[in-house]
Amino acid sequence: MTRRKPQPIVTTPSERMLSVRELAAVLGVSTQLLYRHKEIPRFTVGLHIRFSERAVREYFAAQSLKH
Fold first, then answer.
1. Which residues have a Cβ under 8 Å from the Cβ of 19 and sit 6 or more positions away?
2. Distance between CA atoms of 33 and 29, rounded to whole angstroms?
3. Dihedral sign, CA of 4, 35, 31, 29?
4. Is the model's pTM score more than 0.70?
5. Rounded Cα–Cα distance for residues 67 and 62 (Å)
6. pLDDT tens digit string along 9-58?
7. How many Cβ atoms sit within 10 Å of the Cβ of residue 43?
8. Are 26 and 59 in contact (CB under 8 A)?
9. Would residue 8 be called left, alpha or beta, if left means φ above 0 and alpha means ψ between -120 and 50 degrees?
10. Going by C-beta distance under 8 Å and a sequence separation of 6 or more, which residues neighbour residue 35?
11. How far apart are the C-alpha atoms of 18 and 56, rounded to whole Å?
12. b/e 8-19 (16+ beta carbons within 10 angstroms → b)
């Protein structure tokens, strides 16, 4: 099985960025699940992981179309 190269995430200055804890609360999942699923679009800023709210929404919309 070949892995696809991750697509670059383009953000705008006004775009909302979520921490792991914030996204876990929004999705109703554990933070550990987000750490394990590295295919969910993310940014690493130093030691911190951030998620673009728009990119995450688009990711899950695309996943729902696959199933």
1. 48, 49, 50, 51
2. 7
3. positive
4. yes
5. 9
6. 565 667 889 999 999 999 999 999 999 998 999 999 899 999 999 999 99
7. 13
8. no
9. beta
10. 20, 49
11. 10
12. ebeeeeeeebbe
Concatenated DSSP letters for 1-67? -PPPPPPPP---TT--EEEHHHHHHHHT--HHHHHH-TTS--EEETTEEEEEHHHHHHHHHHHHHH-
State how far the alpha carbon of 65 is from the alpha carbons of 22, 36, 54, in Å. 25, 22, 17
Domain ranges of the chain: 17-66
